[in-house]
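Suppose you are handed a protein chain with no further information: no name, no annotation, nothing but its sequence. What can you learn? This example shows the usual starting point.
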Amino acid sequence: MPWVPISINNPSEKDIDRYLNKLKGKARFLVDEQLATMGVTETLRKAGLHAKDVIEAGLMGRGDEKVFAYAKRENLILLTNDDRFFRDDDLFPLKGSPGVIIVPKENVEHLLYSLKWILKLERYPGVYREAKFRISKDGITSCKDLAGSSKLRKNGREIWVDEI
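A reasonable first move is to predict its three-dimensional structure. Written in structure tokens, the prediction is:
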């Protein structure tokens, strides 16, 4: 299926504000083991975000299922570079999840790009609820939520979507 622009029927500023206010809050993150050892937890904290890592939570070396269950129980958005969290909806279901963000692990530059993307949306934790986001090294973001899956790509000021 070709990329097509998402059509928005010219919402007013008031409509946009009303929508964003529903999503407002403060995102809280659980940083997985590999990202924690790369200094991601400290980077998020320096940016003023609530971040806890699996080492602090006593989950170092524990299975992915335990980490996901902890994030869900504590209402923390899981930040990881393990693509299995995105692919396996049986082990890591969307329903009731505060959200999962998978960031690229190729190099620090791609990781920093992903963290900037996360910071832009951190005031709207409702965006992440019951959804999984995978940020690729080329800037394409894949998203799964209870309504289905799509790919998002920012191209100038337009956002394009394509069903996966």
